[in-house]
Write a sequence for this structure.
């Protein structure tokens, strides 16, 4: 079966490509609804990931959908609309903890969904550092207005959980879901599961809604 990634994110494409599985990219046109206060963020992320996957489903294909939330103070920080909003988000996140939650959906004849949560603490960066980072344009297409992998800004002090989840595609969970659909995966490179990514070892990893093998 052809594997299809229902996302335009270059970061998700890079991570999926690292698994060594041939795939096509077919971005979903699903409009993301606003997150409502009091809503369960994991359920919200799973629902949106499933909607994205279903929107591009084709006969004989396995479609991967994903949606990532940056969750702070009961609110989801979406992609900033402009530089001012990006600056405000980064100031709110500074020297605090938040959750990054990615919903995953894998769809063929069946539907699988789960979500993975990582606890992230941001470092105490300065206003000048924020201004330089915002001026680079990097925050504008990212939920929460930051990329954990940005070397120049290095916004994150520490994480508990899956690093790749913060990038946008938790391979630990995805590997298990793809294997359940019968996708033959080559041996997974050890470098994809770094030491700090303590939840990413596929043989022990458990995520919400997806029992261990």
């Amino acid at each position: 079966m052809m594997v299809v990634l229902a996302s335009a994110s270059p970061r998700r494409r890079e991570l999926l490509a690292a698994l060594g599985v041939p795939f096509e990219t077919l971005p979903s046109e699903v409009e993301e609804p606003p997150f409502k206060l009091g809503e369960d963020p994991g359920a919200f992320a799973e629902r949106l990931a499933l909607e994205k996957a279903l929107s591009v489903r084709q006969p004989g294909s396995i479609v991967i959908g994903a949606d990532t939330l940056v969750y702070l103070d009961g609110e989801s920080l979406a992609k900033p609309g402009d530089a001012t909003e990006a600056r405000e988000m980064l100031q709110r996140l500074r020297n605090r903890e938040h959750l990054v939650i990615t919903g995953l959906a894998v769809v063929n004849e069946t539907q699988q969904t789960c979500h993975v949560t990582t606890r992230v603490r941001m470092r105490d960066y300065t206003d000048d550092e924020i201004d330089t980072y915002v001026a680079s344009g990097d925050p504008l297409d990212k939920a929460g207005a930051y990329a954990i992998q940005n070397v120049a800004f290095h916004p994150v002090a520490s994480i508990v959980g899956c690093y790749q989840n913060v990038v946008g595609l938790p391979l630990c969970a995805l590997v298990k879901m793809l294997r359940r659909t019968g996708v033959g995966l080559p041996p997974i490179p050890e470098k994809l599961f770094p030491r700090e990514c303590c939840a990413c070892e596929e043989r022990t990893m458990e995520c919400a809604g997806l029992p261990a093998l």
